Amino acid sequence: MTETGLAMSTRMMRRCAATLSTAWVVLFAWGALAAGPLYWDMPAGDAFSTCDLYGFRLTEEGFLAPGLPRDLSVALDGDIVWTMLPDGSGCFLLGTGHDGRVLSLDADGKTAVWADLDCEEVISLASLPDGRLVAGCEPGGQVFVIDAEGKPTLVAKIPDVYVWAIAADGAGRAFLATGSPARVMVLDTGTGKVEELLSLPAENTIDILSDDSGRLVVATQGPGLVYALDPDDPEHAEVLLQTPQDEIGSLVRGPQGVVFGLALDDGEGEAQEMATPPAHGSPARAPRPLVLLPGGGAGAEDKDPAKAALYSLKTGKAPKLVWSGDLDLMAVAWLEDLGWVAGGLRPAGSSLTTLHRLLPGGGQETLANWRGGDITALAAQGGKLNVAQTRACVVDRFGSRDRGPRVVTGPVLDAARPVAWGRLSWRGYPLDKSPRWSVRWGNRETPDATWTEWSSAWTDADHELKASAARFLQWRVGLPSGAGEDFRLTSVSVSAWGENRAPLISELRQERPQGVRLGGLLVQRPNLTHTFASGLKAEFSRRQDLQSPDPDMRSRLGRGVVVFTWSAEDPDHDSLEYRLECRQEGASDWRLVAEGLGDQLATWDTEEVADGIYTVRLTVSDEPDNPGSRALSRERSFGPVSVDNTAPDLTGLSAELKDGLLHIGFFARDAASPLNQAFLVLEEDRRIPLEPRDRICDSLSEEFKATYPLDADEDPPVTVRVEVTDTAGNLVSARLPLVRK
Predict the structure, then answer these.
(1) Any residues with CB less than 8 A from the CB of 551 and at least 6 apart, and which?
(2) Contact indicator for 582, 564 with CB cutoff of 8 Å
């Protein structure tokens, strides 16, 4: 890598494979939706992290405080920025993917395509003394030289490797950090000749640059090693450092031009040994320098390594640990007025990107939070910091701490219908900072041209919102430039009044229970229960696979019970209660079936009413949460429902035994429901199905005549019994004497 460029690590390459293919969607729900007064409270109801922060940051307590101002935000035509190379004049060159282009970004935030390369990823960039660029690309370890006009020339291909970083010298040579395996290659940019300079006992050579003595400093992954070597005498390469972390993700210049190494842990919890023994012509492994973590001692190396650590690699001095912590970092940069600034992956489940200031010896301070992506690269120039991110492929530029206004825009508040917006109140300290508040509103979920403009600003801590009725509202608050670092915004509350809305009934249906058991609940679910006037409870099965009913299932109890279920909801999420009524055809008054119901189920014992055709009415009310005149209700009717609790009538009964044959005859009639089935019942409860004369039992009246042979050695019964049921489940049974002829 060059002196000022910041290249991506293998770790970032692996992590980006997952994040780049994931759409960035932030879902948000906030506030109560009940009728009457509505409240949206921060941070009690939702955290300030749901806001859009510009020049603000989140404190450890979850409050909002002034942060590093953002000067501009540039959305790029690409998927990811792998590396940023400052040109010394306030502009940057960006190596991008997956379109394989080099973009220019000027001081005003304007972008242009500097070079379009025949590749997919531009992973590394370096400047040559004559103004040309060297670019390391993928796939296939391609290396391009780009002239001052942006014309690229493919000068080398190193199969099956990544060119992670490039450093150039004054002789027109480019030193390539490659892997896997870890090697340093040297490219003659004039002839395109590539030779191996050094093979290292690691998986990848991640980064490379020259220190203030002219030596090359080389960083590796798997394990995390730092080497120093004279490019003209590579066999005497020296191991400067082996870290507990698995990877030296980047080498950067800090104060006084000193080289620093950012070490990153691979998540396995322990340092890896060298991948292979040193090969012939490779540097021998020097003794591992002892680097003690803050507060460490003799056993410090046995502890799990920190996720990230920053080491000073000053020429002629022993490596020094200057910071360590458990941040998931990807990049660091040095700014004179801020010190070390770092960024990396967004925490799981968070929509905010965080920029940290690393504190000497350990710990960190949040400099800025904003709605962005994973940070892939940082580059500082002229007191400005460029921050490249994935997910939306954006470069944000930040200025010094005391410049520019700061603004927080709250999330869109959704009242679920037009409401009368009430007041906005806030708490913070010190109060003399006079934050300026404003709101806007509309009836579309996303603010657009149909919304109002931002209202006139106010500073009072409790303010009446003079907003017209609208479903959505959004607030924002700004601090003037130079307001100071001590301001804290601790809470925001918005109120509104929503008129009550009636409940909704989406379905009312009659269930078809298959039978009833007494003396306990059925094991199978789902079933339905009914409590009779006597206090006895019965449970009805909904199973559709029941065979012929057993004696318990044939009980008359429960035959007249009709079961209704429904689906209802309240748009304000109010509690609901239900009332079920019935009315016979031709009548004018409704008769109560059940009231005060909390569940969406009711049973109706129809034996309490006369046979006939009925309509059932369900009334749903939100009165539990809206007393008095504020309560609203909704009705829905179901019908016709046939009530028939009268058994069929049997006439003309006869039973004769002649010549060993049993002859049965009778007429069955029902006033309301068609007949369903008939049985001849002999001793020991032998049940013999009977067919009517027309062989189909489906009319209001049927004639039955049947002959049944008895066994010769069987004593004839004295009496026989016949049973007939109708489709309403009413059963009639008659026992008659057997006449012998």
Answers:
(1) none
(2) no
Q: Which helix (H) or strand (E) holds 656?
A: strand 649-658
- Give CB contacts under 8 A, 24+ apart, made by 632-637: 632/500, 632/501, 632/502, 632/503, 633/502, 633/503, 634/502, 634/503, 634/504, 634/505, 634/568, 635/505, 636/505, 636/508, 636/566, 637/508
Quickly count: other Cβ atoms within 10 Å of residue 234's Cβ.
20
Q: With contact defined as beta carbons under 8 Å apart, do 247 and 224 qualify? A: yes
Q: What is the CA radius of gyration of the chain?
A: 42
With a threshold of 0.85, does the pTM exceed it? no
Counting Cα atoms < 13 Å in the Cβ hemisphere of 343 gives 28
**How many CA atoms are closer than 13 Å to the CA of 727, on its beta-carbon side?**
12
- For 362, residues 6+ apart whose C-beta sits below 8 A from its C-beta are 294, 323, 324, 325
d(CA 407, CA 698): 79
CB 125 within 8 A of CB 133: yes
User: Looking at the DSSP assignment, which residues form a beta bridge with residue 39?
Assistant: 495
Between CA 351 and CA 349 the distance in angstroms is: 7
**DSSP-derived 3-state class of residue 407:** strand
In 3-state terms, what secondary structure has residue 16? helix
Which tokens go with 67?
């942060």
Angle at 184 between CA 179 and CA 188, to 5 degrees: 120
SS3 30: coil
pLDDT at 34: 59
Instruction: Give 711's DSSP letter.
Output: P
Q: What distance separates the 2 farthest-apart alpha carbons in the chain?
A: 132
**Residue 323 bridge partners (DSSP):** 310
Tokens linked to 197: 């300079």
**DSSP β-bridge partners for residue 602:** 564
- More confident call, 601 vs 714: 601
- Count of helix runs (H) and strand runs (E) in the chain: 1, 56
Nearest to 543 by CA among 502, 519, 513: 513
Q: Please give the domain boundaries of the chain with CATH numbers for all domains.
A: 504-643 (2.60.40.10), 649-740 (2.60.40.10)
* pLDDT tens sequence across 626-677: 888 889 999 999 999 999 999 999 999 999 988 888 999 999 999 999 999 9
